[in-house]
Specification:
By secondary structure, the protein is an alpha/beta fold. Helices cover 42% and strands 20% of the residues. It has a single domain, classed as Vaccinia Virus protein VP39 (Rossmann fold, 3-Layer(aba) Sandwich). Strands 3-2-1-4-5-7-6 form a 7-stranded mixed β-sheet, sandwiched between helices. Helix 4 links the parallel strand 1 and strand 2. The structure holds calcium ion (CA). Calcium ion binds next to loops.
């Protein structure tokens, strides 16, 4: 995992940020606080957040899904990009990490847009489907336990409307997906997931080598 784009030399990465970084102050504060956290490397990169904000605005999203909140950086990015009526349905299992998230959402004035469910994401997604929310979401961001990526993806694909977008994080997995010496379970799951999406005609696909690798899948 990485909190900046893989493979860019530090001076080029700094240059990229210096000419394109537009991180709002509240997100900078949250990123800095999260960097001090023992699990801080789970946070997405600022340039990735900026891309997601642009994507959410491009598709004029109003209702979005997030699987894996952690300290809430990506949730906040999306909530800030949504219109006033927008809604993020966010899933996480940690009260501890999301307490940090809630503090920043409050401070940014977007708490009312965010509906946080503390439960295994699979349960929340299944409940959304059972509640008849199929094809009501415009955007989904999947960034949680890698062993369940395929299940999260399949459920998100049902929940997102045709023309909606699913973004899946960490698909380059610090480069380990391309190293055949690496055969641990999580790496194998991500490899299998990437291969499956490559053949998946239900979506239009692009794997963006930003941060730790972000796959964009548009539901056809
Ligand atoms: Ca991630």
């Amino acid at each position: 995992m990485t909190t900046q784009t893989l493979g860019l030399k530090p001076n080029l990465y700094q240059y990229l940020l210096s000419v394109s970084g537009r991180e709002p102050e509240i997100l900078t504060q949250l990123r800095q606080e999260t960097a001090q956290h023992p699990m801080g490397r789970m946070q997405i990169a600022p340039e990735q957040g900026q891309l997601m904000s642009l994507l959410v605005q491009l598709i004029a999203a109003n209702k979005t899904l997030e699987v894996g909140v952690f300290t809430g950086y990506s949730t906040l990015v999306v909530a800030l990009a949504l219109p006033k009526t927008g809604k993020v349905v966010a899933c996480d299992t940690s009260e501890e990490y999301t307490a940090i998230a809630r503090r920043y959402w409050q401070q940014a004035g977007v708490s009312e847009k965010i509906d946080l469910h503390i439960a295994p994401a699979m349960e929340t997604l299944d409940r959304l489907l059972a509640n008849g929310e199929t094809e009501t979401f415009d955007f989904a961001f999947i960034d949680a336990d890698k062993s369940n990526y395929d299940s999260y993806y399949e459920r998100s694909l049902q929940l997102v409307r045709p023309g909606g977008l699913i973004a899946i994080d960490n698909v380059l997995w610090s480069g380990r997906v391309a190293d055949i010496q690496v055969q641990d379970n999580r790496t194998k799951k991500i490899r299998a997931f990437n291969q499956k999406l490559h053949q998946d005609s239900r979506v239009t696909l692009s794997l963006i080598p930003i941060a730790d690798g972000l796959t964009l899948a548009r539901k056809n």
